[in-house]
Amino acid sequence: MCCARKVRPGVRQRRDRGFVMEFVLGGVAAAGAGFFTNPLDVVKTRIQLQGELQNRGTYKVHYNNTLHACYQIAKHDGVLALQSGMGPALWFQFVMNGTRLGTYSILNSFGLTRNHRHELSYPKNVLCGAFSGAIGSFIGSPLYLVKTQIQSQSLSQNIAVGFQHKHASVTQAFLSVYRKGGCFGLWRGANAAMVRVSAGSAIQLSTFTTIQEKIMENPTMALYPNTSILIASFVAGIGLCLAMTPFDVLCTRLYNQGIDPKTRLGIYYSGFFDCFIKMAKTEGFWGFYKGVGASYLRLGPHTVLTMMFWTNLKEHYDKLTNDYEFLALTQLSAASPDKQRSLDNSI
């Protein structure tokens, strides 16, 4: 009978969004969050480049803290400079986080984040988060490289830090990087980025998923899903900041350094480990946590906004597709036999 009809494979369900839609939902969520947090990303980048390979106390401090950095940038470069690199930053968020969150959702739908009792497994969550982050960061690495170089640029030598590439536009930046280093140059520093995002993603996604599920087990809290998202995102943001900041500093240094035209290698660092050793010798332990304040002020809201946008986008998408299928099946059950066959083939 028609009313006993089984759900066909073509009928979309929560676990069957497909990678493309998971990619789009994750990318839109992250890009939306990136729009609001990009000024703090600019500030973080400038602070991380301050005093590069110099001992503390031997260089002029242009940015004392996050608020002072915002003031200095607005004063010398203009208010719009706080949104520098917006284009590649949003595309990076869309591509990297779209791939990262989309891959994680697919792995989760296959049950790879749960144990044999179908309970969330924290170790498996960590591994899936790290794997998803590594893939996303590698694909988005050229965008992050250009974003970093543009964000570090200053119109005034009074507050300039790090190597100044003086890119005139995003397109010119990509062409310049390609001319100097070829295709390899576009992915220079990608290994550091993979470590950076793998560490952050492992902590963020595993912590967020575990805490949110624990909170939702409470009948009272289950009535307020956005509250659980907010709490889980806040905690995940703290872990994300602590785990990712050292690798974030390394990435910023590797991405922003100039290139020797003869060797096509970086003028400061030959690679990830060389950068780590040189920083440890000259800047010490706290050098790896430069800009941690700006980093958390960015990562905290960014994590909250991304997770809230992501969760709500998935719920709205599922509701829309389920409403469509419900309407189609209702029409099918009320139709004549010939019409049923026609509608059945269209679902």
From TrEMBL:
InterPro entries: MCP_dom_sf, MCP_transmembrane, Mito_Carrier_Antiporter. It holds the Pfam family Mito_carr. Solcar repeats lie at residues 17-110, 120-214, 224-316. It is found in: Mitochondrion inner membrane. The keyword Transmembrane helix applies. One of its GO terms (cellular component) is mitochondrial inner membrane. It is a multi-pass membrane protein. The keyword Transmembrane applies. The chain crosses the membrane at residues 20-37, 90-113, 125-146, 229-255. Keywords: Membrane, Mitochondrion, Mitochondrion inner membrane, Repeat, Transmembrane, Transmembrane helix, Transport. PROSITE patterns: SOLCAR. Belongs to the mitochondrial carrier (TC 2.A.29) family. This is Solute carrier family 25 member 35.
